[in-house]
Task: structure prediction
Amino acid sequence: MKKHYIIAALALLLALLGFAAWRLCPRTLPLEECSDLYRRYAQVEGVDAAFVKDFPLGRDAKVDVTVLAAADSAGWDSLLRDANLASLPDANRRGIWTYYVQKDSGLGGNPDTAMLNNNTVAVDFVQKQICLFHTSSAKDINEFDAYMFHLMKKNTNLNIQ
Amino acid sequence: MKDQPNTNRQEVDRILSLLAEREAQASTLVQRNRDLADRMTQGLGRWTFLRRRRQAIVRTYATAACLALVFAPTLAVAVDQPIHARSHNMAASHAVGIAQNMLAV
Result:
């Protein structure tokens, strides 16, 4: 009887693993489709990196995101240096900072005056995480702004027509 | 009357042999009944064993099927987000959670 339980458990496990593999395998991106920023930090000690393609903004809009999380204080210091935020006073290191950077300029750099060529960077000083939203096209920027506006409306109960 | 003792002895012998024969027949019958009863008991026991084993097998696979029914939708929902991800030292779902938190503030 024990034999039957083992066979049933193995069959169940195999079926679930097969289903998960079937659904998850196509979702893992090849390295060349990831952002330069992810490739730069993928093997850096003290920084955990992830690249998410087609991160959903609301129902239809999608944007690519590079996520960098510091695994230790040395990694966080290194990330802040790269983002030109190392000299920021401690008093300002609260909550989440959002700023724009030129496309292909990493985490630091000045925003482009044209705006459409900018990515959006969000820095969480408390959790020691940085997200770079790849919004460097007119469509992405519009969708990102619209989603942020939608969230702001939702979170503050503003009644804006 | 002279033959009377012989006749009686013959009659007694005949009855004794008849009794012995009947006893032998009865003994054979009892043995056959015992054999039959043993075989019936064995058959019934085997049938009961087979029935229990069959029930246990059905129960095992039914349990596995129920577990699959419980876990499959959970798994389907978990992987049914339109996100293609690559991560290093971080689960992709964790990265998505971080991005969601950044926007939600």
Summary: The two ends of chain A are 68 Å apart (CA to CA).
